[in-house]
């Protein structure tokens, strides 16, 4: 699971400012703060995140801390995802409208050829909801790209959708994964 949650949220600005300015938030300890961290994130953070995810989301299956990677921001996550999954020039696909940096985050360093899967209003798309991805839409776009001689190596879906806020139900993810498996 890669959480690409937004880092901008003004709803708790006041509370966050109060907490971060509290005297107990950061106590400088040279042994803890004067060296480079592992690129997977600090061990205490990964252990705390492991406990939280195991307790609230893992349905009785523990999430081991050594299987978690904590990174600073969406751009860093997307850069590593593109590097791990693709080679320069490979094709990636993401829905539009979308968080504006998705295309550049994959193109700038990983040199991926990011393409759009355009989501349409329901009256144009023939769906019950506006701007909804469907297995048929994904399959159609993959076939179009295949006719261009392109093979899609990466599909990026943001859930909840940014900027629309739509939540993709689990059964739809399964349908999309079946398309990808073919």
Automatic annotation (TrEMBL):
GO molecular function: pyridoxal phosphate binding; transaminase activity
InterPro entries, alphabetized: Aminotransferase_I/II_large, Ethylene_sulfur-biosynth, PyrdxlP-dep_Trfase, PyrdxlP-dep_Trfase_major
Claim: Metal-binding is one of the keywords in the record: no
Domain spans labelled Aminotransferase class I/classII large: 4-181
Residue ranges crossing the lipid bilayer per the database entry: none
Gene Ontology annotations of biological process type: amino acid metabolic process
Keyword Cell cycle applies: no
Keywords (A to Z) from UniProt: Pyridoxal phosphate
PANTHER family found in the cross-reference section: AMINOTRANSFERASE CLASS I_CLASSII DOMAIN-CONTAINING PROTEIN, BIFUNCTIONAL ASPARTATE AMINOTRANSFERASE AND GLUTAMATE/ASPARTATE-PREPHENATE AMINOTRANSFERASE-RELATED
Annotated protein name in UniProt: 1-aminocyclopropane-1-carboxylate synthase-like protein 1
Species of provenance: Hyalella azteca
The encoding gene: LOC108679362
């Amino acid at each position: 699971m890669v959480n690409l949650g937004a880092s901008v949220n003004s709803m708790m600005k006041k509370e966050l400012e109060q907490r971060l300015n509290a005297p107990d938030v950061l106590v400088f300890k040279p042994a803890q703060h004067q060296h480079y961290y592992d690129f997977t994130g600090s061990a205490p953070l990964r252990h705390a995140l492991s406990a939280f995810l195991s307790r609230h989301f893992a349905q009785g299956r523990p999430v081991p801390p050594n299987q978690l990677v904590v990174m600073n921001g969406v751009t860093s996550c997307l850069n590593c995802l593109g590097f791990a999954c693709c080679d320069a020039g490979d094709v990636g696909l993401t829905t539009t409208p979308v968080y504006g940096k998705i295309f550049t985050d994959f193109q700038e360093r990983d040199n991926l050829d990011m393409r759009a899967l355009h989501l349409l209003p329901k009256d144009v798309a023939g769906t019950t909801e506006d701007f909804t991805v469907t297995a048929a839409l994904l399959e159609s776009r993959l076939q179009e790209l295949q006719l261009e001689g392109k093979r899609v190596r990466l599909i990026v879906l943001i859930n909840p959708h940014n900027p629309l806020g739509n939540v993709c139900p689990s059964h739809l993810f399964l349908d999309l994964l079946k398309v990808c498996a073919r």
